[in-house]
Design the sequence.
């Protein structure tokens, strides 16, 4: 007859003891891995000091326990004193075990979250929780797993639901297999203030992201394309950049073929508002000539850009901003008559030339478009505009045209919430809210110089001198002839 149940109680006890030791070792290891902050490291350092004190000052510790027993009127048993002394020697391990137990509890929680949302790696392995770190306004979740970053990005919506957060960025960590999820609550309203103006040459500030304020330098990225449907904040951010250029003493041209609706009369005191294609053609033609003159001058003086030229020569050659609120209205040739078509083609040619060749000369294009169209945004223009800013688009094709990816489709429906892209860097940010009534100010304009205008003035002066000299010579000749006739008449008399 066989015995039912555990026939070896000693073996069972030994097995449970081994399991307990293994679990303790595991939570200690978890504790070591959770040493991701200076506070936790300091705590470990203090625990090590206490254990050293207990080891080297055993007599003092025993005496303190005896005093405690006398105070309680209960002698401290020897076994308890020895046990407490032994415990004091392993305070660092106990400290790490406490940290590990907390981490183990977190790991159990995240395991449940990942199982619930169906986010499991190869071989049924769940992401291993490393840490959760608060860094100012943002929270960073770090996990180690064999799941590719691309799959984390695809599961973004599920992860946000499971973790109850707003994931702004998913990126690879510093170590292989580590993925960081960045939770950041962007403000839904970010009022403009002139304190945000960076008076360094060409630097513009446009909003706030999880990485801080979003800025770019026109000396390196000279042109900007802003795309967005009605209500996205496209026109607001254009006016915000416009105001910064005005405050920096730049010359401004505003092209608005919607009858000056976006750049109303209030803006006419800061620069020319152009609502007519023929006038736009003249202005752009002059700017192309200005660009050619600047390039020639820069080559002669061996300078690389506008900033270097002004520094080297002590001049005040103006930075020029051309703001076009709706480039589609300006360049769309659909339904245009044969007589007017050359004007459209010439406008496009001038813009293409400036986009290609004005990187160094300080002539900057700021192009707004409501719904991008490949037929309007030609390669020559689009490929030479490095800064892309986009509002939310439901259409993936439109997002691809502007950004080269579908990031604009994932934006929340928040006014002023935009995507900023330069090169391969794509950032979601909240743009500044620029209020014309509150933020526009009466300021003294101090524009820099323009070579074409300078040349025109010089040519005018030469013309006037020549004309006056000719008039003077004619008068002299007439007076001379009068004197000759007069003297001749008197001599005859």
Sequence:
């Amino acid at each position: 007859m066989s015995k039912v149940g555990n026939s070896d109680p000693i073996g069972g006890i030994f097995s449970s003891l081994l399991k307990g030791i293994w679990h303790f070792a595991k939570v200690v290891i978890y504790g070591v891995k959770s040493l991701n902050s200076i506070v936790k490291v300091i705590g470990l350092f203090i625990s090590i000091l206490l254990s050293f004190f207990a080891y080297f000052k055993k007599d003092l510790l025993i005496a303190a326990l005896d005093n405690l027993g006398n105070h309680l009127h209960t002698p401290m048993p020897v076994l308890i004193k020895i046990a407490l002394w032994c415990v004091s020697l392993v305070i660092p391990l106990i400290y790490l075990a406490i940290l590990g137990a907390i981490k183990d509890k977190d790991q159990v929680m995240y395991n449940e979250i990942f199982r619930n949302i169906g986010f499991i790696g190869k071989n049924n392995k769940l992401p291993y929780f490393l840490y959760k770190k608060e860094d100012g306004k943002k929270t960073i979740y770090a996990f180690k797993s064999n799941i590719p970053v691309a799959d984390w990005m695809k599961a973004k919506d599920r992860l946000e639901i499971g973790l109850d957060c707003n994931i702004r960025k998913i990126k690879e960590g510093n170590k292989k297999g580590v993925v960081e999820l960045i939770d950041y609550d962007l403000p839904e309203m970010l009022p403009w203030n002139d304190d945000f103006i960076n008076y360094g040459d060409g630097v513009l500030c446009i909003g706030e992201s999880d990485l801080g304020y979003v800025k770019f330098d026109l000396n390196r990225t000279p042109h900007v394309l802003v795309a967005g449907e009605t209500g996205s904040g496209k026109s607001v951010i254009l006016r915000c950049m416009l105001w910064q250029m005005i405050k920096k003493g730049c010359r401004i041209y505003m092209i608005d073929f919607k009858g000056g609706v976006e750049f109303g009369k209030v803006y006419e005191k800061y620069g020319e508002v152009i609502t007519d294609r023929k006038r736009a053609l003249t202005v752009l033609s002059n700017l192309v000539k200005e660009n050619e003159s600047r390039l020639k001058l820069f080559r002669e003086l061996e300078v690389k850009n506008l900033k270097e030229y002004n520094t080297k020569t002590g001049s005040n050659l103006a930075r020029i901003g051309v703001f076009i609120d709706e480039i589609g209205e300006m360049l769309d040739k659909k339904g245009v008559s044969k007589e007017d078509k050359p004007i459209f083609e010439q406008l496009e040619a001038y813009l293409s030339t400036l986009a290609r060749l004005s990187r160094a000369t300080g002539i900057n294009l700021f192009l707004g478009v409501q719904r991008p169209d490949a037929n309007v945004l030609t390669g020559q223009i689009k490929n030479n505009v490095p800064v892309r800013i986009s509002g939310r688009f439901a259409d993936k094709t439109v997002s691809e045209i502007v950004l080269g990816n579908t990031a604009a489709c994932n934006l929340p429906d928040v006014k002023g919430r935009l995507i900023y892209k330069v090169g391969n860097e794509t950032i979601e940010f909240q743009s500044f809210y620029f209020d014309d009534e509150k933020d526009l100010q009466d300021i003294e304009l101090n524009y820099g110089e323009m070579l074409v205008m300078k040349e025109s003035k010089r040519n005018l002066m030469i013309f006037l001198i020549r004309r006056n000299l000719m008039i003077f010579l004619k008068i002299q000749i007439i007076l001379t002839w009068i004197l000759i006739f007069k003297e001749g008449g008197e001599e005859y008399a």
Observations:
- Confidence is low (pLDDT under 50) at residues 455-464.
- The chain is about 50% helix and 15% strand.
- The first strand starts at residue 128 and ends at 135.
- The radius of gyration is 38 Å.
